[in-house]
Amino acid sequence: MQTDAIEQVYFSPAGTTKAVVDEISKAFFGQKNEFNLMWDPLDEETVIPSNTLAIVAMPVFSGRIPDLCAQKLANLKGENTPAIAVVTYGNREYEDALLELKTILERNGFVLLGAGAVVTQHSIFPQVGTDRPDPQDRRALTTFARQCSQKLRAYPEKPLPAIEVKGNFPYREYKVPAMKPTVNDNCTLCGICASVCPVGAIPPDNPKTKDTDLCITCTACIAVCPEKAQGFHSPEYAEYGAVFAEKNSARKEPEFFM
Ligand SMILES: Cc1cc2nc3c(=O)[nH]c(=O)nc-3n(C[C@H](O)[C@H](O)[C@H](O)COP(=O)(O)O)c2cc1C
Q1: Which of 37, 106, 223, 231 could form a disulfide bond with 11, CB atoms 3.0-4.6 angstroms apart?
Q2: 69 and 22 Cβ atoms separated by less than 8 Å
């Protein structure tokens, strides 16, 4: 089939997941729409019709998909709508995240053309997976997207085979890191961080503070700060980062499931 539109459904606090979605989207024609899960509340049931391709992507947080995304995706329904499911991760592990995303989508009426776990720069420890997706990753994404496109052309006459992905039931426990970004003296109170925070943890009138109970450590505030004021400034972060980098620096390649 030829789809009329592409629905990009994504959560991308630090921007690499969006880069992956854009790379995959290049293989498909049609009007591009989006549900940006950073800010779109998706608090009502929303149906993506079967003549649309859904590209659904989000980062791995502690081996799961972000809880906020799981809640929003509960309202996203398909009608045998073809979809591509992707999780991005920072070269450590993706554990149960892809299985979780696939399971939600299939339960909600989507049929998968393909699924992928793609390595990107680690948003908490950017010294791991630095500058990924890189040209090699982008070529792999193009090949994957073209394979999905071929399957889509033959669908629904040729039914889509079931896709097996890595991961385990029950899923590992979802944990929000205790470590939260803080601001240093560079802060000019511009408030851009408050405007992008997906959980409203930063008061716009006092962006030097943060509601640490609300903050999910997604790093959107760090990614967007024009003064590099938002960040992890503690000595523990530097210490842990060195150990983390040492353990997780060996290059991993993206994995695709068709
Ligand atoms: C709270 C949090 C938890 C994370 N947990 C993992 C993880 O379990 N495994 C991993 O390899 N990367 C992990 N990462 C790294 C992100 O999955 C990775 O950097 C992702 O591509 C970020 O996407 P974005 O650039 O669209 O925000 C984590 C990042 C954050 C912020």
Answers
A1: 37
A2: no
